[in-house]
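Reading group handout, session on sequence-to-structure problems. Before we discuss, look at one worked example. The prompt was deliberately terse, the way you'd type it at a terminal:

> structure tRNA-dihydrouridine(20/20a) synthase

The input record follows.
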Amino acid sequence: MPSSIAHSPWRMSVAPMMDWTDRHCRYLHRLLSRHTLLYTEMVTTGALAHGDVQRHLRFDAAEHPVALQLGGSEPADLAHCARLGEQWGYDEINLNCGCPSERVQRGAFGACLMNEPQLVADCVKAMVDVVQVPVTVKHRIGIDQNEDYGFVRDFVGVVADAGCRVFIVHARNAWLKGLSPKENREIPPLRYDVAARLKADFPQLTIAINGGFQTDAAVLEELARVDGVMVGREAYHNPWWLARWDEQFFGAAPAAPTREQVEEDMVAYMEREATAHGTHWYAVARHMLGLRNGLPGARRWRQVWSDHRLKHLPAREVMALARTKPGATAPDALRASAVQAGALPTEPLSL
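And the output record:
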């Protein structure tokens, strides 16, 4: 049995991020790491009850392991949506108890649910009763400026009694008033010790920690104290970091040989998506713009892939343009297409 299988499934994961971790983003991340657990954007129970279920739940089989994050506060609605998630093949159902946005609060879910641990317990039990996959909770360590450890400890205790065995702890308080969602990710201080204390108090539970991770060293330090680390924006902006995770954190062979191969695999995916679902490559490419961060020519490569004037070109031709080195001459056909689009000058091309 590979050593990676012996680790907790939550050892490394990429956080659910609205407008970012869609199925195209998750496909990219899976090319970079075979073992990292991937999360969907938060999907509300209302969106599944009254919207396009296929649009919200469709994903590529290559994404496994992949978890569905739900937003809601009505036990019956969450049970219905959890059952849908299991039927669609998700490996886990996660309840959002951490989002502090006012829009989410108006729906009476997200971080404000931490003030109602028994309601969260009822929601968890309703989902646990109807699915076989794990039901997990992602939450904050406190609400507003209340930094009393007893608040989060009691929350975890009540919800655990309802059948939740996995808690993903965003190690900042959520301020429900006075801070934007962006400020809520930056201003309340990170307190990793709270997650470590929860693990000590609830050794039978799986405790993963989220918030502010940017380096291998920071991840390894927390993996010595808790069961897993969830990485958010750094994984999105610098996706090549994930290419080290299988080896560094799971003891497995790396998934991605080169950035160039990942780019080619993404272009093949773009072509399949266009054929099967009519998805334009531009909607996929936005997620891989950080793939070459730190390398010479990364800025120009990123500019080509994000240039809306090239949207009429096939993805494979855009890749060829992006890879044309400074001072080199692009193939005549590509140059003509790019000039016609206004993305390149009419004089001799020196990229």
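Points for discussion. First: The domain at 3-250 is CATH 3.20.20.70 (TIM Barrel). Second: Strands lie at 12-14, 37-44, 66-71, 92-97, 135-143, 166-174, 206-210, 228-231.
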